[in-house]
Specification:
The chain is mainly α and 34 residues long. Helix content is 85%, strand content 0%. It has one helix and no strands. This is LPXTG cell wall anchor domain-containing protein. Keywords: Membrane, Transmembrane, Transmembrane helix.
Length: 34
């Protein structure tokens, strides 16, 4: 199994951006709820 480093970095970058976006969205939702 040959895993490319560039692919791994791109994957981690995309996942981190997705998680941050969801976190900010949930934070804003909870702020508006209260």
């Amino acid at each position: 199994m040959n895993f490319d480093t560039t692919t791994y970095i791109a994957l981690v970058g995309a996942v981190s951006v997705f998680v941050v976006t969801i976190g900010v969205f949930a934070f804003l939702l909870t702020r508006k709820g209260k």
